[in-house]
């Protein structure tokens, strides 16, 4: 049945200049697109447009990581300052209560440092003065950090940059898949693609991020990225699917093994051409399968993190109960403060909405994968199936980004985008971004999650 899916189409390749992988990619795209009468081979302008988009995504990903780290550090510093304030306040109260009996006692502490003995002597009164100073500094520091967090809007900036980076990735795959407005001629599709990228970057000006420093590159490293297909593939694996790049030692070890002849160079995995137009089979291989693995690993890491934080929360409450039952009522606020800090940290780094959304997204991708393998070859290779496949997958990716950032703004969608149903019928209702976001998010009072597929 496979030869029935082919059509008479002319594909021009250059075996002298192009590599074997490039020629194989073009021929595979030709044979897997039976409805396409004219194959738009990736030209230098096409490749340049895609590379510019990936360079923009690299800048956005780095900016998003910086803002995310800054926002997390500010929130952690504020929480730790408040926790230390509570703990030191309890210690100060204990010292004041014990001051009458131990006021005249002098304590000595000694330590050896570089063959010298350091001796520190202090009394309860001196220790109370130090605690009073700390109790004055820590609340003021927490207030200043909170003011800086509100003034610079680090969390809002991170959410905006992360959402734009996610939309840039969606635009790249829609452009490579000739979806929506990019289904026209190559020159017009490239102009629409670049105009769309500029509009996405201009949205960041609302959050106070200058778009000139993103569109114009002054760094030689940014201008030279990516140096080869391997560098682009590593960037995609790292920033889209959470795969750590190979270290320098591992690369040198591979090079040494290849040079010594212990490993055949042809047996090593070769980087694919990620700037060529996508067929349905290629999109399934380069986008959906890695996204499924990423969501599966993300669910496991979120579940482990939430379990560890919940165990710490329960232990803190048990400690507070034990202190209260033992008569040490004065020390109960310390474990209660630790429990509050752990709850805040849980909602910050592993919110329940994120875990529920990723779980439903993985369920949807698994359903797409099963329908793909259960459908006919000609049906899978049709342009309608490819459009529905790309449209639904990119919607899932953007909705997960919206849940992760807590954004309420919906990404713009073209009217020509349809959802993937697997069998091409119209009985399956359309899944919009609004409905998908509502189905992926679960309320705290509900114990069951509605399946979005």
Automatic annotation (TrEMBL):
The keyword Transmembrane applies. Residues 413-422 have a biased composition (Acidic residues). The keyword Protease does not apply. It comes from the Eukaryota. Pfam families: DUF4231. The chain crosses the membrane at residues 71-95, 131-152, 302-322, 328-350. Keywords: Membrane, Transmembrane, Transmembrane helix. This is Uncharacterized protein.
